Task: structure prediction
Amino acid sequence: MARLKNKLFYAILFAIIFSVIFSVIARLPRYTRLDASTSMDAATPLIPIFVIFYLLSYIFPLAAFLAANNIKQLKTIFKIFILQLLTFSIFFTLIPVAIQHQPILTNDIFSRILILIRTIIDNEWNAFPSHHVASAFLTFLIVKEEKKQFIIPVFIAAFLIIISTLFTKQHVILDVIAGLLLSSIFYLYYIKLLKSDKAVRKVNK
Result:
């Protein structure tokens, strides 16, 4: 059985690795600037209050680590998240899609938080695919697989995170679709690893 301290250790380790890689990739020099926005994105309103759910995306993957039933599974979850992060880093480097940030004209607390995020944490780069969407959806899929009793609240949280990327104008629809597709692929790989591990354990018995 995986203890809480083990789960927190791997979750925090992933958060540190994510922060370092994401920060480095975001600050690489770009020699071209791609735009994946559509007319539907232009019609999507900016709703600053959704920044609450956008921020939730940074801690939401903790739920996937907490869902692990044993150390082997915990390490597999960690491996999947790292592989997904590295894959997205390749996309961010080779396909430099940038978000054309919509000016924030309001001055409420949520608007100020969103401005702070754009300034310090999450600049216009690293847009395609959306890692916020992918990590949220992958977390939901893992929790759905391992802890079905939490499927409804985790689904609601993941859904709010995903749409928050659009209503904060931090991502466009194509970013979201690509994030969902890639996280689904990594989830299937996660299931494959678990089945392989179970098969090995049966052979060894």
